[in-house]
Amino acid sequence: MVGHEVFTDLDFADDVSIMAEMLEVIIFALEIVDEESFQLELEINWNKTKIQAPESPQAAPSMVPVLGHQVEEVDSFIYLGPCIKPGGESDMDTRRRMDWSWPAHA
What we know:
With 106 residues, the protein is of the alpha+beta class. It has two domains: 1-75, no CATH class; 76-106, no CATH class. It is 26% helix and 15% strand. The strands form two sheets. The chain has a three-stranded mixed β-sheet, with helices on one face. Strand 2 and strand 3 form a beta hairpin. The mean pLDDT is 76.
């Protein structure tokens, strides 16, 4: 309950994915989510927030400023199980799941 409002379906920051074609749109969307969350007395965990921008894959992670916070730009991330990479490649995810599920001695 927040104020007089009752919420029955809340998403956590690690359960939400915002997708856009351009880095500027992702930053703008994060700013809106932050503003709307603040009105509900919720906040983004900026330490867990990551950005994957399709137009600028980096060899080394870079930091993107969003509302005074430094958000890491990554080339892949895990979202509800699968590994998400630009372009939809799944080889990395298949290998990751096989390593996770097969016994070490196999």
